[in-house]
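Incident log, structure service

09:12 report received: a user says their structure output differs between two submissions of the same chain.
09:20 pulled the input from the user's history:
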Amino acid sequence: MERKYLTLNDISAYKIAFHLSNYVWDIVIKWDQFAKNTIGRQFVDAVDSISANIAEGFGRYHKGSQKKIMYPTERTELLKHISVQWYNKKGESPKVKFYRYSFGSVKESFDWNEKSKVRNLLKPEEYDHIYQQLSLLPKEINGLIKLTNQKLSI
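09:34 re-ran on a clean worker, output below:
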């Protein structure tokens, strides 16, 4: 029996964020130059960052990122390489760190969505769709973090 490996496109949070980023792009690209260069650029960057950070975290295939440390040995002046794994202050892997960044980008995107609504840059149905999609992401990202932590603790 062939073993199925998880791909980036199997991750619900990634798919939602990816499609949402293109939806926001298609709206913002039609705004006037001032709106695009101020709120639009920030909004697109924030929404793009959600799927980008999920992808970057997913791309880390091991518990901790490998860092090469070089130090001179006592017997020779040649440098010897050793690899060590590092974790953030909470003891989480860098893989999870990027998922947490994406969570922050969700919160930022909520802010830009609200500002776009208040400044009459979004139609009500556009605002509602973006809000609804953003509302799905915290649970999806937290589920991804939980799953990743469980798999990495084995």
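09:41 both user submissions now match this output. Likely a transient worker issue. Closing.
09:42 reviewer note: The helical segments are 12-28, 33-58, 94-118, 124-153. The chain has one domain: 8-153.
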